[in-house]
């Protein structure tokens, strides 16, 4: 082999010129320095035209861009490109599909850098690839449409359909970008919890369509003032939150004050001018990475305080402040679960006829068997249930359970079958248009004499909306059930009002009974309550009776009925039966 | 918090395949590659700076060895998304007084980034920049391309779907004259996801960053090549006129990638500029 001479230059030239593909040599910039006959013939360009011009200039602009941005750097760095699809424009102006491979030899002392290019005609393959890519694009477009539909679905899941604002889930997603730990540089994450005042009244008096319109207006007003760097979301019902990064509490409460102001401007709803207001709770993140949930919870607590302090105002939650309802939201969830999973109990407290000493009836009192806190009395959760609306299912359940129990006893043929059952109604229930049909259906289902059911309404519930209460009570009265005013003496209602309601019984608040004998003021109040009841022809009932001294005084004052620990605490159904057997009830 | 921060940093590092080399305590030089390539395109230029500068390189999302899963069509639907990534890398590595070397479309990402965080950057080196590739006859602006040209580019990209897709591309035969190059690089250089390349092409070639130029407070150097199809001389002049604190240097190098074709001349121009007082 070593003796074999190198290839004949003439053969090499023939190989170059008559090869079955185009050969070119260019410099680094693509300027053609040599080209073979095949390429000259294939393109129709003359050799003299080709030499000195750039290879790229034979390509359409798109290919030129790619050649400049992709192929030339790749040749420079890796020394080769392979099977790049290009089009070469011939002398006839026609584009010729081609594949281009090239390798580059770096500059040496003798020669400058050179790029050797091979170009194959690739008409068939290009057609085939074009079809493949077209199919691929069609598939991508179908996929894009599917993704778009999915995105829309996702958007719907994260937004409130009525106002278009993010919902709770959407709020969490939107805030993912915010820095962890609740602080953004020197700015701190804050939550403004906005709850409309008396929204229910709008819904009840003007209907749900008007209520919805109001919510949309409120959403727009909140957004127009607070949006931008803040997020506005609707959590539920008439609850909105504004979340953003603030310089501190002052800036956050200033926004709250501004929001109160824009919400106070009257709105036109269904042709009526409606004046709304809201209560706003503000919570600003402390160092130490409070979650958004933490902040919403604290802001919610502050919002409730704003409500308690008279509404249409803002309150700032101080991180250090301890709040008995600190876990209201969590507790609400627990209560909801408790109702669903049967953790509620009804206990029955006997009511004693003070003249005969016999048990005239029982008051049904709900208890919550809390998973960790034990058996809770209504005072621990009724307010929360009332505020959240949970009181409706809860109240319905208590009524149903009590009627079921009454039915049980009656069917056991006990002499206590004539026992009266007193059940408490909340203010919300009183305004619930479903209340009367529900009571009626419950009585019918269990076949209970309506006269044996006594519904108790607190004085404050009556006075909140006397006109509406009168309508509900009248309807209930027409069913034949008895009605009692609970906690009487705490609500400053006037005698004239009391006379308007079709009530059968006045229950004197336990706080006055408590002072009987020790506090002459309380004795006077209890005495006049009893007289008042008798004056309008109804019974007087004393609650919270604990001592025989109190019993003695009540008897002396002419009180009709009494209940309290002195006689019996509220008892589960089974124990009540034992108690009745032992005390000759009924 | 520390763990969270570390996790965030490593996400960014992985997302943009950030690599750091050179002199650890040197001033920071960051390199942003342009359209159609990845950070490997800087390799011929780096030796001129490695002894004196801390070199930070990265791949734009969708290019090179970046995390393709991080490609969000909405975010990367404008140059702003890329500029945000660039700033995030600076923040994660706590880079200060950065000399940002940016090629082609990345030059405009650099310009956007510098308006957002001017304090981050000491100098911008803009290699073959263009604030708008298409002509704007209404403003008398010459970008070099018509709308049809860009459509042609997208068609060309489609034609090369199989040539550039990482998994499908043909392997170039080894070039005996560049033996130092690892096989891996030979096969992966500037390979890209064709769909992303197509979207990036659209974003790049239809971008218009002219309005941002006037807001850049940073000192900058414009490197203008001859015979650059993508950045004709008028464009370089336009950028120079609208970037307040800019210097314009014409390189002898031809084409769009002087750092590849003429690394020595490119490095000389940059070093000379850096040696001049701001």
Give structural attributes.
heterodimer; A: 586 residues; Beta-Lactamase; Alpha-Beta Plaits; TIM Barrel; 3 domains; B: 278 residues; alpha/beta; 11 helices; 7 strands; 38% helix; 16% strand
The gist of it:
Chain A has 586 residues and is an alpha/beta fold. In chain A, helix 21 links the parallel strand 21 and strand 22 (561-562).
Explain what you see.
The complex is a heterodimer of chains A (586) and B (278). Chain A is α/β, with parallel strands linked by helices and 586 residues long. Chain A has 3 domains: 150 residues, PAS domain (Beta-Lactamase, 2-Layer Sandwich); 154 residues, Reverse transcriptase/Diguanylate cyclase domain (Alpha-Beta Plaits), CATH 3.30.70; 237 residues, TIM Barrel. Chain A has 22 helices and 22 strands. In chain A, the strands form 4 sheets. In chain A, strands 14-15-17-18-19-20-21-22 form an 8-stranded mixed β-barrel, surrounded by 5 helices. About 1% of the residues of chain A have low confidence. Chain B is of the alpha/beta class and 278 residues long. Helix content of chain B is 38%, strand content 16%. Chain B is built from 11 helices and 7 strands. A 7-stranded mixed sheet of chain B has the order 1-3-2-4-5-6-7, sandwiched between helices. In chain B, strand 4, helix 3 and strand 5 form a beta-alpha-beta unit. In chain B, helix 1 packs across helix 2 and helix 4 packs antiparallel against helix 7. Chain B is globular and about 50 Å long. The model of chain B has no long low-confidence stretch (mean pLDDT 88).
């Amino acid at each position: 082999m070593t003796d074999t001479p190198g290839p004949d230059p003439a053969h090499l030239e023939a190989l170059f010129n008559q090869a079955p593909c185009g050969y070119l040599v260019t410099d680094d910039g693509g300027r053609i320095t040599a080209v073979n006959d095949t390429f000259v013939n294939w393109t129709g360009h003359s050799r003299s035209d080709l030499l000195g011009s750039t290879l790229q200039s034979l390509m359409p602009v798109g290919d030129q861009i790619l050649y400049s941005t992709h192929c030339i750097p790749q040749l420079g760095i890796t020394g080769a490109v392979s099977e790049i699809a290009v089009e070469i424009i011939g002398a006839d102006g026609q584009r010729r599909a081609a594949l281009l491979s090239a390798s580059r030899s770096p500059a040496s002392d003798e020669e400058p850098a050179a790029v050797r290019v091979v170009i194959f005609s690739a008409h068939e393959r290009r057609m085939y690839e074009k079809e493949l890519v077209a199919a691929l694009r069609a598939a991508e477009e179908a996929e894009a449409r599917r993704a778009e539909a999915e995105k829309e679905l996702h958007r719907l899941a994260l937004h409130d359909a009525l106002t278009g604002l993010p919902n709770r889930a959407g709020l969490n997603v939107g805030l993912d970008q915010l820095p962890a730990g609740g602080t953004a540089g020197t700015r701190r994450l804050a939550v403004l919890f906005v709850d409309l005042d008396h929204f229910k009244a709008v819904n009840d008096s003007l209907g749900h369509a008007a209520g919805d319109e109001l919510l949309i207006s409120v959403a727009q007003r909140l957004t127009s003032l607070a949006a931008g760097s803040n997020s506005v979301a609707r959590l539920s019902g008439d609850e909105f939150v504004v979340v953003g990064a603030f310089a501190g509490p002052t800036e956050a409460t200033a926004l709250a004050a501004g929001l109160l102001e824009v919400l106070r401007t009257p709105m036109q709803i269904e042709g009526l001018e409606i004046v709304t207001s809201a209560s706003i709770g503000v919570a600003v993140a402390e160092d130490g990475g409070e979650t958004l949930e933490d902040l919403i919870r604290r802001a919610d607590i502050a919002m409730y305080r704003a409500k308690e302090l008279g509404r249409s105002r803002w309150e700032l939650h101080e991180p250090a402040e301890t709040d008995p309802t600190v876990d209201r939201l969590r507790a609400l969830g627990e209560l909801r679960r408790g109702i669903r999973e049967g953790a509620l109990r009804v206990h029955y407290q006997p009511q004693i006829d003070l003249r005969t000493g016999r048990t005239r009836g029982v008051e049904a009192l709900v208890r919550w068997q809390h998973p960790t806190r034990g058996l809770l009395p209504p005072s621990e959760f009724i307010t929360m249930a009332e505020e959240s609306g949970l009181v409706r299912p809860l109240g319905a359940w208590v009524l149903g359970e009590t009627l079921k129990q009454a039915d049980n006893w009656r069917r056991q043929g006990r002499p206590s079958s004539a026992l009266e059952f007193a059940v408490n109604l909340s203010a919300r229930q009183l305004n619930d248009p479903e209340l009367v049909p529900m009571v009626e259906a419950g009585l019918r289902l269990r076949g209970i004499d309506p006269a044996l059911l006594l519904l108790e309404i607190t004085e404050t519930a009556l006075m909140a909306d006397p006109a509406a209460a009168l309508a509900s009570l009248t309807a209930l009265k027409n069913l034949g059930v008895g009605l009692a005013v609970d906690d009487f003496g705490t609500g400053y209602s006037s005698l004239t009002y009391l006379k308007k309601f079709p009530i059968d019984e006045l229950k004197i608040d336990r706080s006055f009974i408590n002072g009987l004998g020790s506090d002459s003021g309380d004795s006077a109040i209890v005495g006049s309550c009893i007289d008042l009841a008798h004056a309008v022809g109804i019974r007087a009932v004393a609650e919270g009776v604990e001592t025989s001294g109190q019993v003695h005084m009540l008897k002396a004052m002419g009180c009709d009925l009494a209940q309290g620990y002195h006689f019996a605490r509220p008892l589960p159904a089974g124990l009540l039966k034992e108690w009745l057997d032992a005390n000759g009830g009924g | 918090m520390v763990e969270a921060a570390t996790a965030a940093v490593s996400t960014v590092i992985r997302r943009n395949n950030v690599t750091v080399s050179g002199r650890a305590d040197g001033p920071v030089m960051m390199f942003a590659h342009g359209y159609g390539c990845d950070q490997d395109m800087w390799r011929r230029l780096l030796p001129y700076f490695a002894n004196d500068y801390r070199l930070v390189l990265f791949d734009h999302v969708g290019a090179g060895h970046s995390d393709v899963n991080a490609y969000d069509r909405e975010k990367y639907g404008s140059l702003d998304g890329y500029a945000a990534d660039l700033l995030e890398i600076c923040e994660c590595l706590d880079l200060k007084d950065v000399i940002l070397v940016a090629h082609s479309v990345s030059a405009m990402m650099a310009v956007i980034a510098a308006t957002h965080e001017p304090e981050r950057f000491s100098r911008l080196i803009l290699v073959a920049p263009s604030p708008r590739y298409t002509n704007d006859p209404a403003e008398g602006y010459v970008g070099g391309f018509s709308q049809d040209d860009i459509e042609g580019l997208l068609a060309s990209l489609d034609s090369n779907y199989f040539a550039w897709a990482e998994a499908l591309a043909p392997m170039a035969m080894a070039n005996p004259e560049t033996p130092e190059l690892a096989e891996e690089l030979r096969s992966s250089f500037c390979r890209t996801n064709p769909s992303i390349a197509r979207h990036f092409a659209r974003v790049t070639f239809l971008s218009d960053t002219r309005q941002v130029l006037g807001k850049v407070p940073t000192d900058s150097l414009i490197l203008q090549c001859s015979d650059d199809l993508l950045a004709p001389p008028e464009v370089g002049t336009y950028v120079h006129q609208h970037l307040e604190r800019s210097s314009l240097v014409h390189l002898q190098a031809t084409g769009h990638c002087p750092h590849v074709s003429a690394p020595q001349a490119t490095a000389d121009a940059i070093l000379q500029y850096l040696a001049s007082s701001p």
